[in-house]
Amino acid sequence: MRASLIQIAVNEDESVQARRRRAASLVREQAGAADLVVLPELWTTGAFAFASFDAEAEPLDGPTYEVMAEAASEAGVWLHAGSVPERAADGQLYNTSLVLSPSGELAAAYRKIHRFGFDRGEAVLMGAGSELVTVRLPETTAGVATCYDLRFPELFRGLVDAGAETLVVPAGWPERRRSHWTLLARARAVENQAFVLACGTAGTHAGVPQAGHSIVVDPWGEVLAEAGAGEEVLTVEFDPAKAARTREQFPALKDRMLGLEAPRR
What we know:
Elements: E1 2-7, E2 9-10, H1 16-28, E3 36-38, H2 50-56, H3 63-75, E4 78-87, E5 93-100, E6 106-111, H4 122-125, E7 133-136, E8 141-144, H5 153-161, E9 166-170, H6 178-192, E10 195-199, E11 202-205, E12 208-209, E13 215-217, E14 223-226, E15 232-237, H7 241-249
Parallel strand pairs: 1-3, 2-11, 3-4, 8-9, 9-10
Antiparallel strand pairs: 1-15, 4-5, 5-6, 7-8, 10-13, 11-12, 13-14
Helix pairs in contact: 1-3
């Protein structure tokens, strides 16, 4: 399976409409090069551009979905279209990821459960999701998480229990905590014996420099590919079946005790 992580730059001098068109063009360029394409978190506005969330919020079938659905269909790829500020029917905002099929249909939507900011920013402007989301791709079951979720291992355990073998994590991770980004991506891969595809952004979001360094990690914690700090498309080929083989060869997940009924021996 081949995956392309589009580490797009979010620059304030580019309009949201222009960035949508540019991102769609980058998706189309992956036709024949990738089976799965991933965009970052809140790439339409910037993850730290809090003042833009309300103005740019859109429904699930809004302009980002429309542009990305067409691009996914034309490229013939599964597309994790990153996340957008979603405005629900009741007016509540969510940080919501969209996963589209190669026909452009909405295969899944995930509302970010762990919101960053403590007592400001996303944490107070957006509602918290409540449901774990997995998507069955042709060669693997993908579990979907977003950015700050990476710090909460119990979420990923839940995704594994739901059948995930590949974990897809779009993010708008700040450069000042880049070491955590790499460490946590590898930790989630090792402890869950799963592939981790973590796609970050380049550029600066409302004055906050972004980490970039999108990364693909295998179930043993080995880094298969890592981007630099600037805008880049990171493409990697991996064998999704390695997750099942790893779990069979080193069955650590079978020895889980907490959160499960104690096994009978």
